[in-house]
Amino acid sequence: MPTAQVAWTGTSQESDLQDASLRLFRTSFMGPLPDEEIKTLDIVTFFSEAMYALVAISVDESGATPAGKDSDLTAAAQETNESVWRKEMTVRLVDTADGKPLAGVVVKAMAKDQNGMMQWGSYTSDAEGRVDIDYPPNRLSLLQLQVGAREHLPIRSTSPASNGFPAELTVKLQRGTNIGGTVRDTEGKPVAGAQILINSVARDLAGEFYLAESAPLFTDRDGRWSASCVPTNFTKLTFSLSHSNFVTAEYDQAPSDSGTPYVVAAEDLLARTAVMELAAGLEVEGTVTDETGKLLANAEVTLAFGARSSESQKTFAIAGDGRFRFRALEPGEGSLLVEATGFAPYLSDLKIDPDMKPLRVALKKGMMLRGRVVDQETKPVKGASIAVWSWNGRPWFNWRAETDELGRFQWESAPEGTVRCSVSKPGFDLLRHWDLTACGDEVTLTLSSRAAATATATAPAIRFAGNAKPPGPALTAISHFDRPIRRAKC
Disulfide-capable partner of 384 in 102, 268, 303, 373 (CB 3.0 to 4.6 Å)? Predict the structure, then answer.
């Protein structure tokens, strides 16, 4: 916010590696909707090079008057001209022929700053054909709007900062040629509620070619769809089909005698007789029990594809019958994670193929992982966050806890094997990539206070209560530089 004041500056080991600095800002503003209850706040950064983390929010009671510096900051927030930092562009979508507003039109905004083009946001026009776009005028060199509709041709509009971004922009859309067809399953039955996106190569107002996308279309109860978002002499269209109960599919426009699968012909599209199919795909189903064979309710099963959390995942919340089922799957490899309160999580690789039999997952009782977080003077650190984000090399595993008044935390449902965690608290250096194994004994983790930091860097240590080293499997702690710190017995 333009009224933000720097409350603290500093660095960390990680920011030093990236030649960056850390700054904590403080700001104040009046509630924009004093007569309404605000349940959520969206924080958006206008600067592509900035990364932020929200530390805390405080709210004054109605009628309360801040004192001192808070009062000055609030007054400054009310007096500041936000137009220097924030402006709004109102885009109106209308029909070229009759000038009527168009609802349900998708506007995808792109913005360019000193670092290049970036996605700014996706908006859908309201009943009045209106879209409002916020932007920082002093940071952008270009705003680009890509418009997609169901019954009108796509269009792309580019506004350079040198010409000044308009406060209002009216975009006129022409109705295109009508096409249509039917979506069926492999048995010939209509598929209702299938989503269709039509992609085409279009030319924008500046004469440049770009890949245009329609607004989402949906099939009716008879599996039929129609749209008027393509030009008269359309060519090289692609159709992306998706449905929660079917495997996604993509069709290309091509002659009917091309001899290739997944194609639709122009004449069939114009006659609205084009047929596209969705396959049901494979299923992964099974049951979750305890070690005695009793079905477990309220377990959660996650099926993941790929090694990273950003890749495809499907989650199934088991009801009272202890059974799960994943549909619309393609052949391939995946990983199955099963979690239930009081039990150790289950993790297994899967090969998904047509010959798969129902799975039976028996969960074992969880193991106890106890820990204590202290500072360099061995004083307990209250409120430290423990985040387990990897198990046996799978980075989409997640568990979190917070230390109590004595700096202690425990996990009663820890798995066998190694979990990788991070430990953090404001005012302390972040510890990342710590490998721990549940063994029942308390593990002590030491956080380095930034306030007590000296010119001599000391590697964080891992200790057991009373410096005891009972026999057992080895446990290795890894620093956030991926270097072994110390081996201990557990």
Answer: 373
Is the domain of 96 the same as that of 53? no
Task: Compute CA distances 464 → 118, 373, 446, 470, whole Å.
Answer: 49, 11, 11, 9
Query: Cα dist. 284→337, 447, 480 in Å?
Result: 13, 44, 38
pLDDT tens, 245-265?
899 999 999 998 887 889 999
CA atoms within a 13 Å half-sphere pointing along the CA-CB vector of 35:
0
Same domain, residue pair 404 and 482: yes
| Kind and range of the H or E run holding 16 | helix 13-17
Q: Which pTM value belongs to this model?
A: 0.63
Average pLDDT, the chain: 80
End-to-end CA distance of the chain: 50
Mean pLDDT computed over 300-317: 67
The encoded tokens of residue 145 equal: 């709007």
Q: Which residues contact 369 (CB under 8 A, 6 or more apart)?
A: 410, 411, 414, 419, 436, 438, 439, 443
Q: How many independent structural domains does the chain possess?
A: 5
Which residue, 195, 193, 185, 196, is CA-closest to 230? Answer: 196
The domain of 334 spans 282-362
Q: What is the DSSP letter of 162?
A: G
The strands making up 274-278's β-sheet, listed across from edge to edge, are 224-230, 177-185, 274-278
Instruction: Tell whether 70 and 100 lie within a shared domain.
Output: no
Furthest CA-CA distance within the chain: 83
CATH assignment at residue 450 = 2.60.40.1120
Residue (of 198, 224, 199) closest to 209 by Cα position: 199
d(CA 159, CA 88): 14
Contact 83/129 with Cβ under 8 angstroms?
Answer: no
Which of the listed residues 236, 261, 278 is the one where a domain comes to its end?
278
Kindly give the pairing relationship between strand 359-362 and strand 246-253.
unpaired
Average pLDDT over residues 27-37: 72
Specify whether 232 is located in the same domain as 296: no
Residue type, 264: V
